[in-house]
Amino acid sequence: MCVDMDAFFASVEQQANPHLRGKPIAVTGSSARTVITTASYEARKFGVKTGMNIYEAKKACPHLILVTGDNEKYTHTCKELTKIYNRFTPDVEVYSIDEAFLDITTTHHLFGGPEAIGISIKKIIKDRFGINCTVGIAPNILIAKLASDISKPDGLRWIRIENVEGILENLLVKELWGIGSKISERLAALGIKTCGELGRASASLLRNRFGIIGETLKLMGMGICSRPVISDEEEPKSIGHSMTLPKNIGDRDEIKAYILKLSEMVGRRARRYRYSGRKVSLTLRYPDFETFTKQTTLSQYANDTHIIYKSAADILGRIRLRDKIRLIGVCLSDIKTDKPSQPSLFEIERRRKELLNIMDAVNDRYGDFKLTWASYIMQEKDTGVISPAWRPAGIRLFA
User: Fold this and answer.
1) Minimal CB count within 10 Å: which of 11, 75, 226, 252?
2) CA distances (Å), 378 to each of 132, 246, 353, 394, in order?
3) Gap between the Cα atoms of 36 and 59, Å rounded
4) pLDDT at position 288, please?
5) 221-265 per-position pLDDT tens digit
6) For residue 139, is pLDDT > 70?
7) In degrees to the nearest 10, what's the CA dihedral of 138, 100, 92, 272?
């Protein structure tokens, strides 16, 4: 089951402020170069979409009401929604702040069946929060996601296994979760535009063109997906943070300052949940939205801010920038749970670890970056836009 909240941020704001109900509103961040994070359905009728800049949105809908996002409202609501899901199954994956997957295989008979659970969840959410959601039910996550996507807003659809083939036959491949515009274009070049055509395509042809994911694409075209629901208790595969900058920057020292801040955010989360990683990656995005990621492997597992920072900064040093940068991301991957270790024999390592522990304790108590590195001299405020990776519990709580 896929439970997807309808225009989540906008709906929450409209419920919090009755004067906004029934009006075209768009939720934004607080920075000068923010974009639309969510638009109400009243605004979407005029063509306002997520990702638009303010100028484009206002051009499409001159009487659009802009509301600065309030992350506390959204995170609180998401946590409460998760409690509702857990009434029906313990197998819940909060995929994003406004979307969750529920595996009801072993519990649906206790509540009158899958459709009855979907109806109950929709009613409870509507009665409790005054907002709508769309529920998709299917044999697997891929088709459940499709069922919710094609039923929005405020819908409920159960795609049974015997109906999957017929629904996919003429469905464009880009409608499937996980197939983006670039893959769609490459498939179209092979004469493959619909899921039916994808499912019938030669596996060897797809492997030759797409590598290891070729077979997965064929299975997706057939409506087959073995991906399980991943609960918050599952081990994470990476810890990362990214930020869109207040302005495009080309000065490498400025870029490094942001890399240091992001490295601290990554390192702090890793230390808090006792994880270390072996690989560090740096993501950069140009003003034209071309995005690329470079990765390096550490000599040993680490969660030290400066080790993460030095690795990411070294990657930057090997890159010849063709333009200024609008987004920076740092990620620690190939991670494992830390085991208790013996104190280091080297004084400088002991002192560095003690300093990190003290900084973490201060910031946990008084708030993020109350104590920070002198090298990070850019005192930028939070943009007010919550990360899509945020989760209501576990390591992604601080995403």
Assistant:
1) 226
2) 40, 11, 25, 29
3) 13
4) 82
5) 999 998 888 876 566 788 998 888 878 899 998 999 899 889 988
6) yes
7) 150
| Positions marked active-site | 99
Length of the chain equals 399
Look at residue 108 in the predicted model and tell me its pLDDT.
96
Local structure of residue 384 (DSSP, 8 states): S
Given CA atoms 167, 169, 174, 177 in this order, what sign does their dihedral have?
A: positive
Question: Beta-carbon neighbour count of residue 370 at 10 Å?
Answer: 11
Q: What mean pLDDT value characterizes the chain?
A: 87
Q: Do 194 and 321 belong to one domain?
A: no
CA distance 160 to 142: 13
Which range scores top for mean pLDDT: 44-53, 162-171, 375-384?
A: 162-171
Say which residue, 130 or 397, is predicted with more confidence.
Answer: 130
DSSP letter for each residue of 276-318 = EEEEEEEEEE-TT--EEEEEEEEEEEE--HHHHHHHHHHHHHT
Are residues 92 and 1 both part of a single domain?
A: yes
Diameter of the chain measured on Cα atoms: 68
pLDDT-wise least confident of 120-129, 156-165, 186-195, 374-383? 374-383
Q: Is the dihedral of CA 198, 203, 205, 210 positive or negative?
A: positive
Q: Which residue has the higher pLDDT, 349 or 19?
A: 19
Alpha carbon dihedral 367, 373, 376, 378, in 10-degree steps, equals 40
Whether residue 200 is found in the same domain as residue 92: no
Q: Does residue 122 sit in the same domain as residue 188?
A: no
In a domain, 228, yes or no: no
Number of domains in the chain: 3
**168 and 138, same domain (yes or no):** no
Residues 41-93: tens digit of each pLDDT: 999 999 999 888 899 999 999 999 999 988 889 999 999 999 999 999 999 99
Answer yes or no: do 360 and 341 share one domain.
yes
Instruction: Please report, for the domain that includes residue 112, its CATH number.
Output: 3.30.70.270
What is the three-state SS of 166-188?
A: HHHHCCEHHHCCCCCHHHHHHHH
> Do residues 153 and 261 share a domain?
no
Secondary structure letter of residue 221 according to DSSP: H
- Answer whether residue 229 is part of any domain: no
248 and 389 share one domain: yes
pTM: 0.69
Cis upstream peptide for 343 (omega within 30°): no
